[in-house]
Amino acid sequence: MxxxxxxxxxxxxxxxxxxxxxxxxxxxINSGFYRSRTEVIMDxxxxxxxxxxEN
Length: 55
Fold this sequence. Notes:
Oligomer: single chain
Number of helices: 3
Structural class: mainly alpha
Protein name: Ribbon-helix-helix protein CopG domain-containing protein
Low-confidence stretches: none
Organism: marine sediment metagenome
Strand content: under 5%
Number of strands: 0
């Protein structure tokens, strides 16, 4: 991959995010919030699949 000549706007944007927000995001990830959301979505999809099989 060729090296970008300049940083992307996205990276500049991330550099401007206050550390308080980054700490909060880390807390959410570490508390399992994102994992549990994924599990809820997967459970919903499984229930939908079961309904389709029964019909």
